[in-house]
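[job 0417] fold request received: Wax synthase domain-containing protein
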Amino acid sequence: MKTLNATHHSAVQYMGFDCDVLHYGSTWNPYSVIPSYEERIPITWHTIPQTLVYWAPFYLMAYLVRRADTHVLRLLLLPIVLSTAAYCMYWFKVEDPRLATLEWGRAFMTIVVVAKSLDFAFARKGRFKVGEEYLPPLGSPAKSKTASSEGNGHAHPSGPQYRMLPQWFIDASEVIFTMRGIGWDFGKGVYVPKESRPLERGPFLRTTVLSMIYNYLVIDVLNSFFKLVPRVGTYHGGSIFLPELSPLRRYALSSAIHLATGFIIQYGMDICNDIATLIAVGLMGQSPEQWPPVQDRPWKATSLHDYWGKRWHQSLRQVFLVFGGRIGGWLVGPPGMVLGSFFASGMYHEVGMHMSDHRVTLFFLLQGAGIILEGLWKKTTGKPVGGVVGWIWTAFFVLVIGQISTDAWAIQGLIGGLIVPYPLSVTRRVLFPAARSLLNLYRSVYGGSH
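[job 0417] inference complete; emitting structure tokens
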């Protein structure tokens, strides 16, 4: 028996294995390589560059996806991008709990980079603009052949007229920051809201600056009122359903908080689009036609399909398709694509916030289920969901069911966290003190007369 064991051990070693390695491999926990929150490195001005290192291989990936015959190179680069992104995300932390929203944004940005890297790596021929027939070889500048823009739903880029950055950087940046895929092969079928701004470069940029200021002021006002709500308005967090209030007041307040949260997200996405527009058109020489509005009056939606598929922003459409929509569609077909995309959306908003409250994912899954029910209704009756009844149906899913998601965020302190810093808050530094002064003046003048 001893001879048999010795022979077996020698055979294993001969095959290139070692028993200790096999034992380690069978008991290794992948989570052990991720440091606990307490062991992570605090982010300071000195460590910020380290937290952004993953953008270097990511930019290289984006450059390669715009060059011909680079599929193998992109596949080889993918593990480097993913491992570097994981390192930058999980080996560092925002230590101040008041800045939890920055940690949230860091996680969201990393997830988007991972999704885009996966898409770039597995796009066999690369990523093409609409109208392009070929990609240039490595070392050559990209030469686009694109159609012009016409009508709603077709915003194709035109040739750049102003350039302030190197061509290779512009090529990579275009495919990175084109979130909706407007004018690209991966954006076919995406809904494009109609443009209301002038399309001449100068007036377009000035209007975009004014839009950014307006969106900022709206967010500042709403965020300032959040700070007045007990517990919810602090970074410690608290439920939007205040138990000390009567049921009517409790749900009226929770509905107001939920609605205001939705507007902050909406105007926040508008600000992000404004900033990206100013950079792309102002610095990179892109056409204003490439940067239409990001949303189309969501409050007018008369169905969930209308709300999520057209009126709400489509900036993360490709991310959710990569993480869930394509897999679900491959397994089950169109219903699987819908549920897979909304499951990915739920996990994005839950995991990205370092949360363990599955109500967030449940909310998004219910939206997908509602869209499937709308499809069954149309198939059965021959009529799509719409009109006043459709608006009420949509409002119930978004404004009533949606409160479970907002409550989860509020408990984690995300609503009361840093959104607009106090030194930059016009509302808290100017409007609120002015309102208090006017109220005190009113009381001093009219209070003594009674």
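[job 0417] notes: The first strand starts at residue 41 and ends at 42. The mean pLDDT is 87.
[job 0417] exit 0
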